[in-house]
Design a protein that fits this description.
Layout lengths: L1 E5 L3 H13 L3 E5 L10 H4 L9 E4 L8 E4 L1 H12 L9 H28 L5 H21 L13 H10 L2 H4 L11 H11 L2 H8 L12 H7 L10
Parallel strand pairs: 1-2
Antiparallel strand pairs: 1-3, 3-4
Helix pairs in contact: 1-3, 1-6, 1-9, 4-5, 4-6
């Protein structure tokens, strides 16, 4: 059994898609990051970095319980264990390269673009421009890669496609375009529509819908999501 520590945000969405595509048995464990549950000692024992997603595999290597955190690490771990969605052996270098491009580039810059456009105080025009333009640059790199092919790596649907789906599903917020955010990236748009039409994608979007996650963006939420912005209380 896999315990899946989840909040309805882009990085957990990637793992939800894999679990649904693979048909693996899993239990959703909600972690309400707006309430600060990611900072509780019980969760920090699973992910010392205090971020979702994370998993605990009760049937890990050698039959031992295994924890895995960071969405890219989880995708790679599950795909290697399950034996699917890794593409052809000759595509392995490309798969790793694009998986980490998404995990260290497109994802983080998209996240920072969202933060500075929606959550940061006004007047930080340099930061808004910096992260928005870098997100757009990463989109263009991926758009060029998808020209003339159905999948990001090789001819197979892989964990790289699942990883990209997680963040590109939030393109409207990253690019501040609610109507047609991917119009400037036609190859991404066509690829995304194909992935998003998969039955597993609909099931992945439904994960966690039965839990009432906090939606109010109050001071508690800001302190939970951005603790480094607040100095520790004086003793």
């Amino acid at each position: 059994m896999i315990k899946f520590y989840f909040h309805p945000t882009p990085n957990p969405a990637k793992v939800a898609l894999f679990l649904e595509e693979a048909g693996l048995s899993y239990e959703v464990v909600p972690v309400d990051t707006s309430k600060g549950e990611q900072h509780l000692p019980a969760f920090r024992a699973i992910n010392p970095n205090g971020k979702v997603p994370a998993i605990v595999d009760t049937d890990g290597p050698g039959g031992r319980e295994a924890r895995v955190f960071d969405s890219s690490a989880i995708l790679l771990y599950l795909a290697e264990k399950d034996g699917r969605f890794l593409g052809r052996p000759e595509d392995r270098p490309e798969l790793l390269s694009w998986l980490f491009f998404l995990g260290t580039g497109l994802g983080p810059f998209s996240g920072q673009a969202v933060h500075f456009q929606y959550a940061a105080p006004e007047g930080l025009d340099y930061a808004v421009n910096r992260y928005r333009r870098e997100a757009e640059r990463h989109y263009q790199v991926l758009n060029d890669q998808l020209a003339g092919q159905d999948h990001i790596v090789g001819s197979d649907y892989t964990i790289v496609d699942m990883s990209a789906w997680g963040w590109l599903g939030r393109a409207s917020r990253v690019l501040k375009n609610e109507t047609d955010p991917l119009t400037a990236y036609p190859h991404i748009k066509h690829w995304f529509e194909r992935v998003d039409a998969r039955p597993a994608a609909a099931r992945a979007r439904a994960v966690g819908k039965d839990h009432a996650f906090k939606k109010v963006n109050d001071d508690e939420t800001k302190r939970a999501l951005f603790p480094s912005n607040y100095p520790p209380a004086a003793e």
